[in-house]
């Protein structure tokens, strides 16, 4: 029995854990072949094995996607193994939380390069292979910090707001090729990045109090959304982003 993403090749960055792992599992279950990209070999292999256990083809590629040479090496390796690419999910990201006067330039640039420059590099590398199929999907992991913010998030909010602008412009650029470009803006999800907040009872309670549905998001919910956005049914959704935040930004 055929699956919705049979014959599609999906490149997913930051695939070793959290939201990236969840999206890999979801797309793999729908038939996509997976090119999983990250820096942590052990965790990346765990994701690949979980995807294979579900019946998906999954290959791993070690790369720092904020590095131009690393991205070019990953592009060459992915295309050598898969021949093409149809889906690109830019999920790799970091967050450094501190007041602006405590930031070093190196820390600021690390957030910028990981969250924003990496998306430019990955899109520049893989868009040529995505053209000519009459179908393509780029999903950029934006954030509710693209729309609102909190103290101590100057670097993170800056990158995510800029990424939303990149998403809009690239969607217009690629629309003639039937390649959609969409952002997913998660609110608070139970991922490794948010572990420090979840493990702090006071901060955890503060976050929960701000989420109208009264809980952290489940990573599987991001996987389900990514699965839909990569489907044929989502071909008219482009140049925007989808808030999945339990009502946070509705307040």
Overall domain count: 1
Give the rounded overall mean pLDDT.
Answer: 96
The tally of strands reads: 7
Task: Please mark out the parts with pLDDT under 50 across 5 or more consecutive residues, or reply none.
Answer: none
Query: What characterizes the major β-sheet?
Result: 7 strands, parallel
Structure annotation, total helices: 8
Please give the share of residues in helix.
Answer: 40-55%
CATH architecture: 3-Layer(aba) Sandwich
Order of neighbouring strands in the sheet with most strands: 3-2-1-4-5-6-7
CATH class: Alpha Beta
CATH fold call: Rossmann fold
User: Roughly what fraction of the amino acids lie in strands?
Assistant: 15-25%
Rounded to an integer, what's the Rg over CA atoms? 17 Å
Question: Between the first and last Cα atoms, what is the distance in angstroms?
Answer: 44 Å
* Molecular shape: globular
Structural class by sheet pairing and helices: alpha/beta
List the main descriptive attributes of the protein structure presented here.
alpha/beta, Rossmann fold, 251 residues, 7-stranded parallel beta sheet
């Amino acid at each position: 029995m055929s699956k919705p993403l049979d014959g599609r090749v999906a490149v997913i960055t930051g695939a070793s854990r959290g939201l990236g792992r969840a999206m890999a599992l979801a797309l793999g279950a729908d038939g996509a072949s997976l090119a999983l990209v990250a820096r942590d070999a052990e965790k990346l292999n765990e994701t690949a094995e979980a995807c294979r256990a579900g019946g998906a083809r999954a290959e791993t590629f070690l790369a720092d996607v904020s590095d131009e040479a690393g991205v070019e090496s990953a592009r060459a390796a992915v295309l050598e193994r898969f021949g093409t690419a149809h889906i690109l999910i830019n999920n790799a990201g970091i967050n450094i939380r501190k007041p602006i006067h405590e930031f070093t330039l190196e820390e600021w640039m690390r957030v910028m390069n990981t969250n924003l420059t990496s998306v430019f590099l990955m899109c520049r590398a893989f868009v040529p292979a995505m053209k000519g199929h009459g179908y393509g999907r780029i999903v950029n992991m934006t954030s509710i910090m693209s729309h609102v913010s909190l103290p101590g998030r100057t670097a993170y909010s800056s990158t995510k707001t800029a990424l939303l602008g990149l998403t809009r412009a690239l969607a217009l650029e690629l629309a003639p090729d039937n390649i959609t470009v969409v952002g997913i803006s998660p609110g608070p999800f139970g991922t490794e990045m948010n572990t420090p907040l979840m493990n702090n009872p006071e901060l955890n309670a503060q976050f929960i109090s701000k989420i109208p549905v009264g809980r952290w998001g489940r990573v599987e919910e991001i996987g389900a959304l990514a699965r839909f956005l990569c489907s044929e049914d989502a071909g008219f959704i482009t140049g925007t982003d989808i808030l999945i935040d339990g009502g946070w930004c509705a307040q």
